[in-house]
Amino acid sequence: MQLALTPDGRWDFATVDLVSAASAAGFAAVGVNADRVDDAAVEAYAAAGVRCHELLALVVSDDESATMASAELLADRAQTIGAQWVLTVFTAKVPPQRIQRCTKLFDDIGAGMAVEYSPLGAIPSIRDGIEAVRAASRGGRAGLMIDSWHFCFSDDTWEDLAAVPVDDIAYLQFADALEPEYRDRMIRESLHRRALPGEGVLELDRFATTLRETGYDGIVSVEVLSAELRELPVDVLVGRLYATSAPYWI
Fold it and tell me: What is the pTM for the complete model shown?
């Protein structure tokens, strides 16, 4: 199992400082937002000795022109930084052909489409996510990205999680969650009130055990979106993210 780091889009750390701290903490890979990909980022990754497992993020909407323009830009950025996957979120259900066109753009430069399912989006269940993966795979490499926060607040069961074919998993994202303050404001909970693994209410031991028992042995990317933790210095924050996540996987 390889631990990676998914950055919070609200962090204001310089890329060179983030990847250096991630490498020092023990992370093997670090994701990057597309707007941060430039020559300096490429040099920072090389100097830190970490790779880029995910580029953030393609938003697939009902606006075909905007979706395809974004996919073309992200394919270019993924090639520049050497991203393994382009994380893809859906705000609408779209024709399979549109998903395939996006996947083909990524496949042409050596990246895959990581389909994110979320109870807060247009792909709300594992079953919906697998259907999107099947459609995307007709254009190139695709897999399902399974997020512990999304799974635990979805209507999916542990049996649903255990039944995901291991070859269909792109990678995992991992975080805990504070007890929700308002169940009707779950987007806010997702963006600002996640918690360090082991410091919240999610069944992370069962999540990790279930996926291990499927035979999964790939990337686990730690993504803790927390207003409180954003106040920490980068080295302290990244060190705590690694230290609290590693016992579940390594």
Answer: 0.97
β-pairing, 176-177 vs 112-116, is unpaired
Tokens read off for 228: 């409180």
> Per residue of the chain (250 residues), what is the pLDDT tens digit?
999 999 999 999 999 999 999 999 999 999 999 999 999 999 999 999 999 999 999 999 999 999 999 999 999 999 999 999 999 999 999 999 999 999 999 999 999 999 999 999 999 999 999 999 999 999 999 999 999 999 999 999 999 999 999 999 999 999 999 999 877 799 999 999 999 999 999 999 999 999 999 999 999 999 999 999 999 999 999 999 999 999 999 9
Domains observed in the chain: 2-248 (3.20.20.150)
Three-point CA angle 246, 31, 139, nearest 5°: 115
Contacts of residue 58, Cβ cutoff 8 Å, sequence gap at least 6: 67, 70, 71, 74, 86, 87, 88, 89, 102, 113
